Structures are given as structure tokens and as C-alpha cells.
């Protein structure tokens, strides 16, 4: 379903249930070699400055692609990094990140070749997920003029990936959690990124938002 230009995909045939546990043993050994206090420090608590909301896709792991370590990014992932204001799972993560961990940045990261986004552009049924992908169809509807004008299927899907992130940033800013944080003078920025599976490079969509100035008045809470 992803935009595959080569016939080869990453070989996962060496991965088994047992190999994961063996991998864990190596991880512990290597981590302790580098720093004998590694796990003691992490066990003492976390203070990540960033909340990452990304796609569940196995090829977009937050820590690896940003060269960060355990303890440095708080992570929430769902299919196609959709921001739905009734999603209790996402809202709980966001609330904890903003109000307890006091993260300074929330980053919504989509990726080109996203299977969820591509599926949302078809009329096919995939099961329960159709209800989830409906949210991306709404993004398409909002931007249908721009998207329908793109002839190439891959380019149109890539643009929908970007627009899904941009709409996600907007939706996140409208949550009572972000609104209250800003109302209380808390330092909090919401960003939108798109990751390229083909190059490994992240594109900043330049929609970073730190306050209500870019938001329609109807979505602003004034604290009264
Ligand atoms: Zn995806």
C-alpha cells in the first residue's frame, strides 16, 4: 500500500518471539557497559520535553529517527496520526504530557506513503478502521479543491499526508488541554512534521503554533 519504488522491502525473516528476548538481553548488556547507572537513572522518573504523536507504522519510530534515547520523548501513536477531539486515549496522553510532565513541545509527525492515508482515499472497505479513516476523508473534503487538482496519485496522497498533519495541529490547538495551558501562560508549542520513508528526512511543515493568534475566535477559550 505504501509508495514502494523498489521491489525489495526490509527483511524481517530473522525476527522471532525468542529473538526479541535475546535482543533485550543485548540491549541491557550494552546499555550497562556504556553507563552502569543507566537503568537506575531511568527508573527514578521521566522528564521528557517533547510529546510525539505519530503513525503506528513500524518504519517511523520516534526515538530512532530523531536520534534520541529512552526518557527523552513521550510517545503516542495511532494509525495515520489522526487527532480526534473525542479520542480519550490521545486526550489522556496529551493531558498527562502537558499538565504533569509539562512538555514544551507537541509534535505531530506524519509520513509519506502512509497506508492509512492512502486507504482513506479509496472507496474500499477495510473493516473497523474505516471509521477511523473517516477523519482523514474529512480532511480531504476540506481541501478537495487543492487535492483534486493534483493529477499524480502519489503526489496527491503525499499532499493529503501533509494536510492531515496540518489539520491535526489545528485540532490539537483547539483541545481544552492546550487552550488551558496557553491561558495559564504555560510555554507550549504545537508542531507539524512529515517524515520521508525514502530519505529518512523530516520536513517541518512550518505550522508551529504557540498561542491563539492563528486560531479562529470560535475555538478560543478565554478562561472565563
Ligand atoms: Zn502511516
CATH topology of the largest domain, what is it called?
Beta-carbonic Anhydrase, Chain A
Which runs of at least 5 residues are low in confidence (pLDDT < 50)?
A: none
Annotated CATH architecture of the largest domain = 3-Layer(aba) Sandwich
Summed up, the helix count is 9
Number of strands: 5
Describe the structure.
The structure is a single chain. This protein is α/β, with parallel strands linked by helices and 224 residues long. The protein folds into two domains: 19-46, no CATH class; 49-219, 3-Layer(aba) Sandwich (Beta-carbonic Anhydrase, Chain A). It is built from nine helices and five strands. It has helices spanning 17-34, 38-43, 62-66, 88-100, 115-120, 129-142, 144-148, 153-173, 176-183; strands at residues 50-55, 73-78, 105-111, 189-195, 202-204. Strands 2-1-3-4-5 form a five-stranded mixed β-sheet, with helices on one face. The radius of gyration is 19 Å and the shape is globular. The mean pLDDT is 94. It binds zinc ion. Zinc ion binds next to helix 5.
Nutshell version of this structure?
With 224 residues, the chain is of the alpha/beta class.
Sum up the structure in keywords.
224 residues; Beta-carbonic Anhydrase, Chain A; 5-stranded mixed sheet; 9 helices; binds zinc ion; 2 domains; alpha/beta
Amino acid at each position: 500500500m505504501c509508495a514502494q519504488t523498489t521491489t525489495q522491502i526490509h527483511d524481517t525473516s530473522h525476527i522471532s518471539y525468542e529473538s526479541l528476548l535475546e535482543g533485550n538481553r543485548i540491549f541491557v548488556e550494552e546499555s550497562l557497559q556504556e553507563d552502569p547507572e543507566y537503568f537506575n537513572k531511568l527508573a527514578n522518573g521521566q522528564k521528557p520535553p517533547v510529546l510525539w504523536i505519530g503513525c503506528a507504522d513500524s518504519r517511523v519510530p520516534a526515538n530512532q529517527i530523531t536520534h534520541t534515547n529512552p526518557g527523552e520523548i513521550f510517545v503516542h501513536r495511532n494509525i495515520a496520526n489522526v487527532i480526534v477531539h473525542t479520542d480519550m486515549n490521545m486526550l489522556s496522553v496529551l493531558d498527562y504530557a502537558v499538565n504533569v510532565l509539562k512538555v514544551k513541545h507537541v509534535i505531530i509527525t506524519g509520513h509519506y506513503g502512509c497506508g492509512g492515508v492512502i486507504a482513506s482515499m479509496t472507496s474500499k472497505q477495510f473493516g473497523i478502521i474505516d471509521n477511523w479513516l473517516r477523519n482523514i476523508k474529512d480532511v480531504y473534503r476540506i481541501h478537495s479543491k487543492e487535492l483534486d487538482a493534483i493529477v499524480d496519485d502519489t503526489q496527491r496522497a503525499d499532499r493529503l499526508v501533509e494536510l492531515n498533519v496540518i489539520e491535526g495541529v489545528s485540532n490539537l490547538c483547539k483541545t481544552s488541554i492546550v487552550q488551558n495551558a496557553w491561558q495559564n501562560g504555560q510555554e507550549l508549542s504545537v508542531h507539524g512534521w512529515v517524515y520521508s520513508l525514502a530519505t529518512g528526512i523530516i520536513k517541518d511543515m512550518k505550522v508551529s503554533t504557540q498561542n491563539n493568534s492563528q486560531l479562529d475566535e470560535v475555538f478560543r477559550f478565554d478562561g472565563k
